[in-house]
Amino acid sequence: MSFVNGSVSYWFRELGEVRAGAPLSGHVQADVCIVGAGYTGLWTAYYLKKAQPDLRIVVLEKEFAGFGASGRNGGWVVGEIAGSAEVYARRHGRDAAVRLQRAMFETVEEIVTVAAGEGIDADIVKSGQTTVARNAAQQRRLSETLAHARDWGWGADDLMIVEPEQRIRVAHATGALWTPHCARVQPAKLARGLAEVVRGLGVVIHEGTEVESVRARTGSAPAAAVTARGTVTADYAIRATEGFSAAFGASHRDWLPMNSSMIVTEPLPAAVWDEIGWAGAELLGDMAHYYMYAQRTADGRIAFGGRGKPYRYGSRIDDAGRTQEWTVDVLHGMLADFFPAAADVPLDHAWSGVLAVPRDWCSTVALDHATGLAYAGGYTGHGVAATNLAARTLRDLMLRRDTELTSLPWVNWPVRRWEPEPLRWIGVQLMYSLYRAADHRESRLGRTSRIAKAADLISGR
Ligand SMILES: Cc1cc2nc3c(=O)[nH]c(=O)nc-3n(C[C@H](O)[C@H](O)[C@H](O)COP(=O)(O)OP(=O)(O)OC[C@H]3O[C@@H](n4cnc5c(N)ncnc54)[C@H](O)[C@@H]3O)c2cc1C
Question: Which of the residue ranges 75-89, 261-275, 345-359, 397-411 would you say has the lowest mean pLDDT?
């Protein structure tokens, strides 16, 4: 099998050559310094600059804008909160958790609207999302998921049972849920388009500039981002490094850099699409524990993602996105199992990236006026939309606006840290081995396996 492995992502390869902006050279003074030019950093720069055009904003990016998960993801702009509503509700009450969920629904629309308004051509289509069950155990979980969602703010128009055959013909599908709150996007086009818009607004983005440390404001000394090329001092320093955050010493155990891997096929012949019946741009997921996510790309391919090797010892990160052969084989096998008609369509590219998972699976948007430090992340695979909501929230917090957004329960949500190594590594390996075993057993069992419940206990989900 010959395909491109790594090289960041197919999404970037589709864009052609990326010309990175100039690195930082020397010391600079700004009002706001943002570390990381993924969606969190870029959306935050966008909303701050729109709200207050005279703000001097500098973004520092170690590689190029979109290099991280923002340029590698599955392209689901998904309006679902990370973590569980129950956990947010325990601390802030049920209404707050429901408000966060509804804010995520609205965020999908916000992204579609802003991208269109700013002329960002990122193949965005608000097409909804189908989740299929493929055995009796998954079918039961599908019904439980619907009942749970109804309890937590999802109305009849937000999530509904549909006939899987009507949407996408997935082999062995027994049932499906559909939500309108999801849009398909070409991730790298969104990241690069956003970077261009932000530059047009007057934000300075220095690419090829790695931040070594972020310093808090002390006395009369402002906050700062320190690099080998110079230091940016600012009233506020925002860390927008999600899955890369473990590299910042004090945050080493805050968020686990969880790996996710993807493959993309060559374009499918029209006859294969006809057989699959996937006519629109809706996103596809499943109810397995070791779940998959997929999109039909604008250029007629299937992009198919899943867990792969979940985690590297010591929170290490493989930056270039190279993916182990067995992960590619597993994903390719799954794709063929879902769509036998596409089994012989050659693969074109495989890649991986990291997203951040907090110990309690709840995201945080935090800003401290005393130190001038802020950060947002821990979106656990829901970051394409959540980054936008986080950015608008950071804007309101920084500008001291008292809004609906600043009262959402994830604001200053305390980060629950992961265990030290080797416990962290052992726990994650065990958790995903159990989920894989549970999926295997459930194909015969007819109900959720006890093995999966054990894995849930370890994962803390
Ligand atoms: C394969 C994959 C599939 C996914 N699929 C989906 C999906 O379909 N839907 C969804 O909602 N979410 C998905 N996610 C998660 C989502 O992509 C992320 O949550 C989101 O992009 C996070 O954006 P971010 O800007 O916070 O972080 P990132 O996009 O990771 O950006 C962080 C940036 O910081 C830079 N950086 C790191 N360290 C430094 C430093 N020291 N100095 C300067 N710069 C630094 C990095 O180079 C990077 O550009 C997926 C993630 C992956 C990896």
Answer: 75-89
Q: Decide: helix, strand or coil at residue 148.
A: helix
Instruction: Please state, in angstroms and rounded to a whole number, the distance separating the CA atoms of residues 186 and 294.
Output: 12
Compute the CA torsion angle 91, 363, 297, 329 (nearest 10 deg).
-110
Give residue 165's pLDDT: 84
Higher pLDDT, 362 or 445: 362
Taking the alpha carbons of 365, 245, 60, 380 in that order, is the dihedral positive or negative? negative
Ligand 1 centre distance from Cα of residue 193 (Å): 16
Tokens (6 digits) for 97: 């958790």
Handedness of CA 82, 83, 85, 91 (dihedral sign): negative
Q: Is 244 in the pocket of ligand 1 (CB under 6 A)?
A: yes
One-letter identity of residue 414: P
Whose structure tokens read 């069950």? 133
Q: Are 238 and 375 in contact (CB under 8 A)?
A: yes
Compute, in angstroms, the gap from residue 147 CA to the centroid of ligand 1: 31
Reported as a single tens digit per residue, the pLDDT across 320-373 is: 899 999 999 999 999 999 999 999 999 999 999 999 999 999 999 999 999 999
Distance 242 CA to ligand 1 centre (A): 6
Quote the pLDDT of residue 429.
87
Of 143, 185, 220, give the one whose Cα is nearest residue 39.
Answer: 185
Q: Determine the Cα–Cα distance for residues 7 and 188; give it in Å rounded to an integer.
A: 13
Give Cα separations from 2 to 10, 174, 372 (angstroms). Answer: 14, 34, 49
Quick one: pLDDT band at residue 137, thresholds 50, 70, 90? very high
Q: Which residue has a Cα nearest atom 19 of ligand 1?
A: 383
**In 3D, which of 353, 335, 354, 355 has the Cα closest to residue 345?**
335
| 395 residue type, one letter | R
CA of 445 to the centre of ligand 1 (A): 37
